[in-house]
Amino acid sequence: MSRPRKSAVDAAIAADKAFAVRAPILGFVFVTVLSLLSWRLIQIQYIQHEKYLSVVRQEHIDDEVLPARRGQIYDRQNSLIVANRVEETIVVDRNKITDIGNCARALAHAEGVKAIDIQRSYAPAEIRQKYVERLGRLLAEPLGLQHWEVIRKITQSDKVEIILAKDVDESDGARMKDMLRAERITGVLFRDSHKRTYPFGNRLTHVLGYIAETGNAGVELSMNDYLEGTDGHRVFETDRKGREIAAYRGDAVEPKHGNHVRLTIEMGLQEIVEDVLDEVGNDADEIYVPQLRAEKVSVILMEPGTGAILAVANRPHFDLETRKGNWRNFAVCDQYEPGSTFKVVTLSGALESGKVTPNVRIRIAATGEIEEAGITVRDDHPYAELTVEGILIKSSNIGAWRLARQLGQQKFYEMGVRLGFGEQPGTGLPGESRGQFFSPKHWSKSSLSRKAMGYEVGATPLQMVSALSTIVNEGVRYESRIVDAVFDERGLVVEARKPKILNESTISPATASAMRTALVKVCLPGGTGMQAVPPGFTCGGKTGTSQKFDPKRGGYMDGRYVVSFMGFVPAENPKFIGIVVVDDPKVSKVKLYGGTVAAPIFRRIAERALDYLKVEPTEP
Fold first, then answer.
1. 256-277 per-residue burial string, b: 16 or more CB within 10 A, e: under 16
2. DSSP letter string over 435-501?
3. pLDDT number for residue 67
4. Which contiguous run of DSSP H or E holds residue 547?
5. DSSP secondary structure letters along 68-115
6. Is 560 helix (H, G, I), strand (E, B) or coil?
């Protein structure tokens, strides 16, 4: 029996039911596709918006660096030693000088037409070429160049930013800015930079140092964290003519300028020291000291009772502007065998031990030479006997050894350490040396005899003058310092560096007094330091002469010496303590001693320094 066929009505009902099931699904798919298409359209519009906004920003929005000023450096009297001068670096922005709109507007202004006329008359490449040619002609004369030189700089570089000129004076830069603004020229940036200037010229070079992007030597390096500021920036918008739109200025971050540093240096005294070195100096390049023909010379003046350094100078030195010359600060960084100036350690230790007094007589050697326990010691002049202070006055090597033997290795070493040898004096200047002063376990059989007269010891001029300062200060040892204070732009002190006592009783006041008396006698007739005394004043001090050691071949070099004098003046109330160290002088009319070479330089400095300080003479 065949199955009956469905009627048309039944078929229609079935179709309606099927559609009713599928309709929601189709609707969902349709809505989803429409939503996706709409979202994609929004994305495209957003991307296009950002693209065009980026173009606008590139053309009309600038982010300008606001450079921080580096702090300045002053002396103790607030005289400006290191200042800043604002200079411009002129930069061309390739993106802006190739923008057709910018180029067309500038050319239209020059030709007295509309920008659209320029764009209709020339192809884009031709517009850009004409713009660069105009830029070259406008900047050539102010920059001291030919116009083709400017064009070549711009066109032969593929960098986004092209440096046209550096170190352009601020006033010249301002005139160029005004000219370019008037000519509707955009794409030329003027970036401020601060260059160091030196009101006192090439004075105090080794202490000041220099900067190369940041502090690179001297105080510029050691105090860089204080001197260096932090750059700021600001974002601003310009109109089609390159004029700044005040209403669209972005948030600005102001630069934080560096702090200023005040040194303990007295530039009046510094100039005196350097003038004297120039007078005994040689060539225009001031590399050598000609009457001495020395390898190098160092001078330090220190203030009694504070450890403050008043003046430091070396020859050779370097040019602060060109940086040519010798950058090494010999007075602080270089060690030498001090010779007889180191006998202040020997005598101080002997007196402090209580085993001798200044007037105790010590047997020396009538022959000028002794050999004991396999050790030979010689004097330049023979003495049968000398008092303890006489050993210092006559600078007897044999006498110094006899005192050192009484004292013993350990006590001798301890006195040297207490006076600051083997450690840094504390200025913080780059390269400050601790010298070489090892403990007795490193000594040889002959070491005590050598050290007693200032050999087998590595000391710097700064260490030697600091040790003398301790004696002059009645045994109170101060840290050497060259920075007095740090202050901000408003003049408020950020950090004050007061005198710092390292040891209140390095030696007793009685020992210090006996040492000062002996040191004054060194500079009286019959002493080795007579030529150090400035007319009208009393002076105390000690001479030193040491043969130069040859580090390459070993042993000491014949006829080559380091000679020195360290002293204080006036003796009864010292205004300063100083040292002069002359490395390898070559003279023909006098013997190579500290008393004949270094002492006269000290006297010349002292005469002028006392006059500068308005100290009245006390002697006929």
1. ebbbbbbbbbbbbbbbbbbebb
2. -B---GGG--TTHHHHHHTT-S-BB-HHHHHHHHHHHHTTT-EE--B-EEEEE-TTS-EEEE----E
3. 76
4. strand 540-549
5. PPPPPEE-TT--EEEEEEEEEEEEEEHHHHT-HHHHHHHHHHHHTS-H
6. strand
Q: Is residue 342 packed enough to be buried (19+ CB in 10 Å), middle (13-18) or exposed (0-12)?
A: buried
**Gyration radius (Cα) of the chain, Å:** 39
Please answer whether residues 515 and 344 qualify as being in contact, where contact means their C-beta atoms are separated by less than 8 angstroms. Answer: yes
Q: Which residue has the tokens 């009864």?
A: 572
Beta bridge partners of 481: 308
Q: Which helix (H) or strand (E) holds 549?
A: strand 540-549
The CA distance from 593 to 587, in Å, is 11
| 290: its two tokens | 């000609």
What per-residue string of b and e applies to 82-105 under the rule 16 or more CB within 10 Å gives b?
bebeebbbbbbbbebbbbbbbbbb
The DSSP call for residue 539 is: -
pLDDT for res 403:
97
What pLDDT was estimated at residue 404?
96
State how far the Cα of 106 lies from the Cα of 116, in Å rounded to an integer.
12
- Non-local CB neighbours of 484 within 8 Å, separated by 6+ positions: 76, 262, 263, 264, 308, 496, 497
Structure tokens at 527: 């002493």
Collapse the DSSP code of 338 into the 3-class scheme (helix H, G, I; strand E, B; otherwise coil) and give the result: coil
CB 296 within 8 A of CB 315: yes
CA distances from residue 618 to 528, 557, 569 in whole angstroms, order as listed: 22, 43, 11
Indicate if the alpha-carbon torsion angle 277, 278, 281, 287 is positive or negative.
Answer: positive
- Helix 100-111, helix 124-143: angle, nearest 10: 70
Place of tokens 């050993």: 391
Given this model, what pLDDT does residue 495 score? 95
10-residue mean pLDDT profile of the chain (620 residues): values are: 53 57 62 67 61 51 74 97 88 85 89 89 90 88 87 83 83 86 86 86 95 83 92 68 56 86 98 93 46 88 97 94 91 97 98 96 93 89 95 96 96 97 95 96 95 97 98 97 95 95 96 98 95 96 94 88 97 97 87 93 97 93
Q: CA 537 to CA 85: how far, in whole Å?
A: 44
540, 542, 543, 544 alpha-carbon torsion, rounded to 10°: -160
Residue 250 to residue 558: CA distance in whole angstroms: 74
Q: Closest Cα to residue 579, out of 314, 390, 368, 401?
A: 314
Chain length of the chain: 620
Contacts of residue 544, Cβ cutoff 8 Å, sequence gap at least 6: 338, 339, 340, 341, 342, 454, 562, 563, 564, 565, 566, 594, 598
Measure the CA–CA gap between 200 and 320, rounded to whole angstroms: 11
Site of tokens 């030709």: 111
Q: What's the confidence (pLDDT) of residue 187? A: 85
pLDDT for the residue 50: 57
